[in-house]
């Protein structure tokens, strides 16, 4: 009975989030995906990958992959980037692939405060394989046998392509940042059927944080990873899409070369629901030196699905950053108080 409930809940959630975006617990480790205004925010050249496996204990799970690269152009106060995202829902044989280009422009508001404005243009494709799926019309009501013909005019393999556009803004000084992003501005149609007008819902998000120096060291020491770096960072990420909302809020302590974090996902004033994926998230990160940072996190499910049934979620992020040129900006600190990985 418990297994039946879990599978039923999984089917419900699969249908509910089929038009929802990827969610990363380490959202700060996917900066271009989080907000296009963060393109070039490190003011270095940066490469990164992200992987998430949600509900690994179940036969059917959700997987997400991302890769990105960005570069800051000092002479133009601009950041340029490329991003690739892919999500897979094995229960419904659904996948979504996105290839996008991002751009941001940095404006100085004061001696230590900046405003970044960014945008993203993406080509997206949504694919599904219906050959292994069983529809209600295939089940014989008297014998329970599964018939060969479902009556659904979908075919085995089906895909749909469309363009997508996003916009974002980010304010920051040495220790504080706050941003806003709007994804899927045109709400493109994502339906596989021509007579069904199903759209990708607009996603609105707000994110921010504050960093406290616990060591007395300077931001330059922080950037160059000196052994005395000790910092506490508090941050949040709020998302609203298609009638669903979600809040990630938590803290991380940077004890070079280690980073330890604890996060809460959900809406604290509401009851735990499947659609909120409510969970507690533990994070462990390490700086390996020479600009290479690695992070691992695990989601401990609090919703009615239960962590023992689903296995929660595992997530890995890897980032490599460096200064591509020493001619200009060499030795300067970044104006954006980014996370360590």
Task: Explain how this protein is built.
By secondary structure, the protein is mainly beta. It has a single domain, classed as Porin. Helices cover about 10% and strands about 50% of the residues. The chain contains four helices and 14 strands. The chain has helices spanning about 1-15, 30-35, 220-225, 305-310; strands at about 45-55, 60-75, 80-90, 95-110, 115-130, 155-170, 175-185, 205-215, 230-240, 245-255, 260-265, 280-290, 290-300, 315-320. A 14-stranded antiparallel beta barrel has the order 1-2-3-4-5-6-7-8-9-10-11-12-13-14. A hairpin with a 7-residue loop joins strand 1 (about 45-55) and strand 2. The longest helix is centred in the first third of the chain and has 15 residues, at about 1-15. The protein is globular, with a radius of gyration of 22 Å. The model is unreliable at about 1-15, about 220-225 and about 325-330 (pLDDT under 50). Keywords: Signal. This is Type IX secretion system PorP/SprF family membrane protein. InterPro entries: PorP/SprF_Bacteroidetes. Pfam families: PorP_SprF.
CATH topology description: Porin
CATH architecture label? Beta Barrel
Report the C-alpha radius of gyration, rounded. Answer: 22 Å
CATH homology-level superfamily: monomeric porin ompg
Order of helices and strands: HHEEEEEEEEHEEEEEHE
Average residue-wise pLDDT: 82
How many separate domains make up the residues?
1
Proportion of residues in helical segments:
under 10%
- Find the structural class using helix and strand composition: mainly beta
| Sheet having the most strands | 14 strands, antiparallel, barrel
- Proportion of beta-strand residues: over 45%
Low-confidence stretches: 1-17, 222-226, 327-331
User: Counting H and I runs of at least 4 residues, what is the number of helices?
Assistant: 4
Strand elements, count: 14
